[in-house]
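Notebook, student rotation project (T.W.).
Task set for the rotation: take a protein with a known small-molecule partner, predict the structure of the complex, and write up what can be learned from the model alone. Partner molecule chosen: zinc ion. Sequence and SMILES entered below by T.W., checked by me.
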Amino acid sequence: MADAAVGIGSINGIKIELHWTFILLLIFVSFLGLYDALLIVVLFLFVLLHELAHSFTSKRLGVKVKRIVLYPFGGGSMIDNEALSAKKELMISLAGPLASIGLGILTLIISLIIPKGSISTDFYLLFELNMLLGIFNLLPWIPLDGGRALRAYLQRKMGFLEATEKAVKLGRIITVAYLAISTAYIILSESSIADIELLIIFNFAFTLLIYGGAESELLSAKIKEQMHNINVSYAMTRRFNIIPPSVKIERLRKMFYKKNIYNHIIITKKNGQYAMLSNRMLRSIILKGNELGTSIAQASVKLATISSDRSLFYTLQDMESEGIDTMCVVKKGRLVGILQRQHAEFAATMYMRHSKKDIKA
Ligand SMILES: [Zn+2]
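Predicted structure of the complex:
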């Protein structure tokens, strides 16, 4: 899985995860020697501080932070986009680079006041790393911080989609310029041919990652624009049956047989919360045959609920980022439908195909 990341802990309620590419890099660098490995660990500490600056600013502005994922050469904070206004996005984007620049100045001061030696040289290197982290991220290159800040700034005069389109267009120019300049720089450096090859490949992959990020920002902005007036109730299914929790699987099987309701989702209530018995689970119990005396309450799993008037776009985003497949849709506290991610994504696609604007990226 491309998104696979390992949780390493949490700070102030924000989950911190290491992306698998970072774990790979750590293993790779540990072969180079202790000093390089330590340097990478320290660099990551500063990347983490940069991300925490984004997260704490978000929290202060009332925007929920879901988690922070650390990649080999930067980080990403997953925040609640729905509560994000342009002004808040501007402040949150700038907080990270400003923190890095502040840390850079601090490490520079330390390197200047301590006696000259290997430690002061190390602090000077940390100064350079932090400044690089701060200034590079300030480039108006969406999805980097500077690009997000630019989009937020543009939104004062235009809509979200138009601002994203402008920021992505500028980003494409920067991509070409960056690739040309950095490749020339690598070739002109006095490195060995093998190192040059490796650096060029790495740099190209890195540029591609940013380019891909920008294009998916644009696609997401287009989808958001198209889906802005449909909510959860549009894509939910009403084919469900509420069965009392004490009913045994054996009886359920007979009910199914008589009423021919195989295509209905089985919902029950478990400790005051809606729970579902999936077809797969039911089938497995019936095939095994030895657990037919189990009650629905025992075999079912609890479901999260969502309000029927919530935006479908943001709900699908949440379901994807949290790995949720099914939700109960409620209206005024009453169960009105079931939202299944695959089905809802299909419904959303069909809706967009029918609307006039083209959503191709
Ligand atoms: Zn940042």
